Amino acid sequence: MNRFSVSLPGLQLKNPIMPASGCFGFGREFAEFYDLSILGAIMIKATTVEPRYGNPTPRVAETPGGMLNAIGLQNPGLKKVMEEELPWLSQFDVPIIANIAGSTVEDYVSVAKEISEAPNVHALELNISCPNVKHGGIAFGTVPDVAKEVTKRVKNVSRVPVYVKLSPNVTDIRLMAKAVEDGGADGITMINTLTGLRLDMKTGKPILANITGGLSGPAIKPIAIRMVYEVSQTVNIPIIGMGGISSAEDALEFIYAGASAVAVGTANLIDPFICPKIITDLEQLLEKLNIDHISDVCGRSWKHGISGYHCP
Amino acid sequence: MNRFSVSLPGLQLKNPIMPASGCFGFGREFAEFYDLSILGAIMIKATTVEPRYGNPTPRVAETPGGMLNAIGLQNPGLKKVMEEELPWLSQFDVPIIANIAGSTVEDYVSVAKEISEAPNVHALELNISCPNVKHGGIAFGTVPDVAKEVTKRVKNVSRVPVYVKLSPNVTDIRLMAKAVEDGGADGITMINTLTGLRLDMKTGKPILANITGGLSGPAIKPIAIRMVYEVSQTVNIPIIGMGGISSAEDALEFIYAGASAVAVGTANLIDPFICPKIITDLEQLLEKLNIDHISDVCGRSWKHGISGYHCP
Amino acid sequence: MKKIGEMKIVSQKEIAKNIFQLILQGKLVSEIERPGQFVHMKVGEGIDPLLRRPISICEIDRENQIMTCIYRTEGKGTTWLSKKQQGEYINVLGPLGNGFPVQMKSGKVALLIGGGIGVPPLYELSKQLRNRDIQVIHVLGFQTKSAVFLTKEFQRLGVTYIVTDDGSYGEKGFVTDVLKKQNFDFDRLYACGPTPMLKALEQKFPEKEVYLSLEERMSCGIGACFACIRPTKDREDKKGYRKICSDGPVFQAGEVIL
Amino acid sequence: MKKIGEMKIVSQKEIAKNIFQLILQGKLVSEIERPGQFVHMKVGEGIDPLLRRPISICEIDRENQIMTCIYRTEGKGTTWLSKKQQGEYINVLGPLGNGFPVQMKSGKVALLIGGGIGVPPLYELSKQLRNRDIQVIHVLGFQTKSAVFLTKEFQRLGVTYIVTDDGSYGEKGFVTDVLKKQNFDFDRLYACGPTPMLKALEQKFPEKEVYLSLEERMSCGIGACFACIRPTKDREDKKGYRKICSDGPVFQAGEVIL
Ligand SMILES: Cc1cc2nc3c(=O)[nH]c(=O)nc-3n(C[C@H](O)[C@H](O)[C@H](O)COP(=O)(O)OP(=O)(O)OC[C@H]3O[C@@H](n4cnc5c(N)ncnc54)[C@H](O)[C@@H]3O)c2cc1C
Ligand SMILES: Cc1cc2nc3c(=O)[nH]c(=O)nc-3n(C[C@H](O)[C@H](O)[C@H](O)COP(=O)(O)OP(=O)(O)OC[C@H]3O[C@@H](n4cnc5c(N)ncnc54)[C@H](O)[C@@H]3O)c2cc1C
Ligand SMILES: Cc1cc2nc3c(=O)[nH]c(=O)nc-3n(C[C@H](O)[C@H](O)[C@H](O)COP(=O)(O)O)c2cc1C
Ligand SMILES: Cc1cc2nc3c(=O)[nH]c(=O)nc-3n(C[C@H](O)[C@H](O)[C@H](O)COP(=O)(O)O)c2cc1C
Ligand code: FES
Ligand code: FES
């Protein structure tokens, strides 16, 4: 498995594949299908200070090659995650990336401070880009200065490296990336969902109770690839790429674009075995393409010699 | 066919279905398949002052549920369009919407002035949002003030109503819509393509010679619907909606979202008969859903009583 | 345990208008624990439709590893499914959810109420109850004659009342009209069907032991994505919600807000 | 005239490694005018793959409205196609493009050069030339033995030289090696295959009448989208470009820049 190991701030990954936040809960359901220790890492569901119930249902709708979700950050709250979910996950030999969310900067700071103390949390992922909550969320993710500020504040209190998750719903994602890098981010994860809408044929009304939802799945992959390509040439911190990955080829495309590792979201909801499958297939794909080590081809799409960030 | 007629600034449409610009050339190829007079209107390929060769090939790449194109506004130039294409099109009983593009405001003004004189050009569509040209193009489409200025200048010289085509590659499309409305636009057409990228598995390099391309097709539909929903509640001018339409249901979904008519792009490239098919199917669909007139359900997704623009 | 695998189509036929009976064979059948569980079927070959479709298990033949599902063609997914033929394979995830409890003293009376496409899961339930010597009464409602199915099979297991909205088959009216008229004496009620029907039943029998099978739009079907949530009635409940896919789809009346 | 319609699969078989011969029946065959034209096939059921796939016509049986295509499985689309079976239907748009000119005096000599999956369209061409009493010489290049196909059929029509890159079948080398060695005397050259091969031929025979069939990524296939453009060699050319799909795919050497 050596052609596979990737080391990133706070993270020693056995392989570059991990489930994306919100598509894997806290791992319990998937542990019934396979041993979670085979994963590169796990991005757990967004955690907020208080438990959240989230949005009314329907919360999901299908679109051509994608889906909309408006879960609304439902989660059991910081206390329960600290006391039940993280200890449960510690039985597996896998680093946890804790996705954190909030309505105010103070919320982020509170969750970051406490959750970064958990022994198996090796990194934080600031979800400044969730389109499905009314307060905060989206503004944090679209205004560079606000993003920089929240990054800085969280960096101040976190005991582990901080990755910031970028929203694709912006005119120029490079400005956001630069801002969070300036704010001290150790890495970037991208992309979160694109805002979308589906209407019911009979009533003409939105299918989701929340009206709009976040678009994920294969449909968004070319947009995500483009953005990883842009951002990886702009900043000097590593990227964990995501958006529509459902095969080893998709994963490698993100690495070529400039990601150091990748996360698989929606595909877990269709095939619970997708992460182990991609791990196996990717090893074969590298073999077939004569790639010695996954990191050798990070940013291959734009690298002539070596320029910008040299992916680890 | 009366439940179908839509009247918009400059346009008396037999039905709300028209081919989108760039996916129908100047109609010649499709005239071999059916009588173009059955169409609501025709949006012709972008015209620039001088002929343009466009980008090197490959110019198209497939994506999950979509495609990328980087044609680069290839067109025979204003003179030839005026002397050959438009006169040829005048044999059909169908209003032409002339899509115009340029690198500078002056370019737009020149083309607008002249092409709006053509007897069968009933409206202009300002393509301020083409992501595949190096100069101008995209900046016009992402900076509200620039969009407003070019709209104003073109309005000054055009003899026919002016529609402005919006780019989805922005943080808040409502700001762009408001800007072009303030600039005097008679209507809005939306959306143009989203910028995307695909990499080749073997080389790791972009498949398109132009690197990035514009994403179109079913994959983008939920984003387009969301944007039409937002913009139709923001401005008081009508919208011609597009983005991923390939069935009568898709067309109706745009009308529900707030479009007064719709355009079909990519689907023409897969099924040359798609426009006549949607026209026939839509009539049956309205029948089935007991909709007396297409305009009755314009904006149904957000209308309680009547508020904002009352679609014609 | 939940499994994922290819199941072979033993047969598929249209048993009423737009209602299909699909018989599948595969190892997954051995894992089924209770009636009322469901499976999550991959429809289409690629990314469109993207999501699986939840379909209830209607009948089980453990010995031959065979199960039956009955579904109505609604949209793209079920229409695709209806075109698959004998010998072809369907990718199935399941069994999912908890299903109906069948533990009950012999000799007791169970009232089973189904509406439309909610009828199928009651069939295996009824069979299992009968095997436990429980007396079953069925009340089944359909929209119209052409949508009626499985009535003979139910009649073989116990008394069966059929109503249709338009009276074109059986009595005219809703299942609740039958209940009013017959005033059954029963020990437990099971129901599956449209939400208004379930609500009416919940209100009508506040003192009874009532089990309701619910529906919600799903994505994962295994409890991971929080798509299919219902709030609990009890405001003091520790979690405050239930997942229809993994805590349900069957709940005792009063547990969640319908 | 171009048509669009469902064509029935008469047969499909793998004739070499990853090379499939697909025989289709349908009205569209009556519209085919020249060898070297191609069809645009819908692959997959829904939106993925989204675009049609261009495949050349390899042989025509006008009387029975039958045509043969030979293709190599490359990616998703052709792999999907290879799984379709006899009796199933494929949605086909065509015939597209202009194909090879076959007008030529009887007794003249035509040299046909094919590389890999560029070989199929030369087959119908060769047949039609033979029908006009033109002498045909074939030079066909393949990568390796397992990829060789249609050789017997070509041999029946005229002298046929086979080369493989690795020498595992026929001579070792490229088609250009055969040309060097044999120094054929011919009146016209037709070629279809990888661009480097076409370029080499164009350079080698600047004085000859040479027709080359080109490939490019396409979307519409009918000349509407401007995806498949090549610039003309002649800088003074009025348009300055040609569309491979509708002006081509066959061009005389020197018309467009390869
Ligand atoms: C636990 C459970 C058991 C079910 N059992 C059966 C059964 O035995 N027989 C049967 O005919 N139907 C059953 N359904 C309903 C069935 O899942 C839907 O009819 C089906 O998903 C529609 O898919 P479609 O592609 O044909 O429709 P589309 O409208 O194209 O589906 C679009 C999306 O909406 C979802 N959706 C649409 N209708 C429903 C619905 N009623 N419930 C949940 N999701 C829906 C689909 O799953 C899909 O994600 C069950 C639903 C649930 C939740
Ligand atoms: C005029 C013409 C005639 C052709 N005739 C034949 C033939 O007779 N037999 C045969 O085996 N192949 C032929 N090809 C090539 C064939 O079209 C491609 O192999 C096929 O499109 C690959 O599709 P895929 O889904 O398997 O591969 P993918 O790589 O999944 O395709 C992805 C996209 O790239 C395009 N693409 C990939 N390779 C090519 C290519 N070489 N040329 C054009 N587009 C490509 C596809 O059409 C699709 O849009 C021809 C191409 C052209 C342009
Ligand atoms: C059901 C669902 C829930 C999600 N919840 C979260 C979340 O809690 N926090 C977060 O940062 N992203 C969340 N996401 C976004 C994903 O992590 C991911 O960024 C996005 O879906 C794109 O990847 P994909 O196309 O592979 O799904 C969620 C996505 C889905 C589909
Ligand atoms: C091949 C191609 C060429 C296009 N050329 C133009 C153009 O010249 N001018 C323009 O305004 N839009 C152009 N577009 C954008 C379409 O008009 C349309 O806005 C977009 O494709 C979304 O619609 P669709 O998903 O139905 O294709 C082009 C799109 C495609 C696919
Ligand atoms: S469908 Fe994912 S939690 Fe129920
Ligand atoms: S493929 Fe559209 S013009 Fe050739």
TrEMBL record, chains A, B:
InterPro entries: Aldolase_TIM, DHO_dehydrogenase, DHOD_1B, Dihydroorotate_DH_1, Dihydroorotate_DH_1_2, Dihydroorotate_DH_cat, Dihydroorotate_DH_CS, Dihydroorotate_DH_I. Its EC number is 1.3.-.-. It is an enzyme of class 1 (oxidoreductase). The active site is at 130 (nucleophile). The keyword Cytoplasm applies. It is found in: Cytoplasm. FMN binds at residues 21, 45-46, 99, 127, 165, 191, 217, 243-244, 265-266. Residues 5-286 form the Dihydroorotate dehydrogenase catalytic domain. It comes from the Bacteria. Pathway: Pyrimidine metabolism; UMP biosynthesis via de novo pathway; orotate from (S)-dihydroorotate (NAD(+) route): step 1/1. It catalyses: (S)-dihydroorotate + A = orotate + AH2; (S)-dihydroorotate + NAD(+) = orotate + NADH + H(+). One of its GO terms (cellular component) is cytoplasm. Its cofactor is FMN. Heterotetramer of 2 PyrK and 2 PyrD type B subunits. Catalyzes the conversion of dihydroorotate to orotate with NAD(+) as electron acceptor. Belongs to the dihydroorotate dehydrogenase family. Type 1 subfamily. This is Dihydroorotate dehydrogenase. It comes from Caldibacillus thermoamylovorans.
UniProtKB/TrEMBL annotation, chains C, D:
InterPro entries: Cyt_c3_hydrogenase_gsu, Dihydroorotate_DH_ele_sf, Dihydroorotate_DH_Fe-S-bd, Dihydroorotate_DHASE_ETsu, FAD-bd_FR_type, FNR_nucleotide-bd, OxRdtase_FAD/NAD-bd, PyrK_electron_transfer. Transmembrane segments: none annotated. Its cofactor is FAD; [2Fe-2S] cluster. FAD binds at residues 53-56, 70-72, 77-78. Binds 1 FAD per subunit. GO terms for biological process: 'de novo' UMP biosynthetic process. The keyword Transport applies. Residues 2-102 form the FAD-binding FR-type domain. [2Fe-2S] cluster binds at residues 220, 225, 228, 245. Keywords: 2Fe-2S, Electron transport, FAD, Flavoprotein, Iron, Iron-sulfur, Metal-binding, Pyrimidine biosynthesis, Transport. GO terms for molecular function: 2 iron, 2 sulfur cluster binding; electron transfer activity; flavin adenine dinucleotide binding; metal ion binding; oxidoreductase activity. Pathway: Pyrimidine metabolism; UMP biosynthesis via de novo pathway; orotate from (S)-dihydroorotate (NAD(+) route): step 1/1. Responsible for channeling the electrons from the oxidation of dihydroorotate from the FMN redox center in the PyrD type B subunit to the ultimate electron acceptor NAD(+). HAMAP family: DHODB_Fe_S_bind. Belongs to the PyrK family. Heterotetramer of 2 PyrK and 2 PyrD type B subunits. This is Dihydroorotate dehydrogenase B (NAD(+)), electron transfer subunit. It comes from Caldibacillus thermoamylovorans.
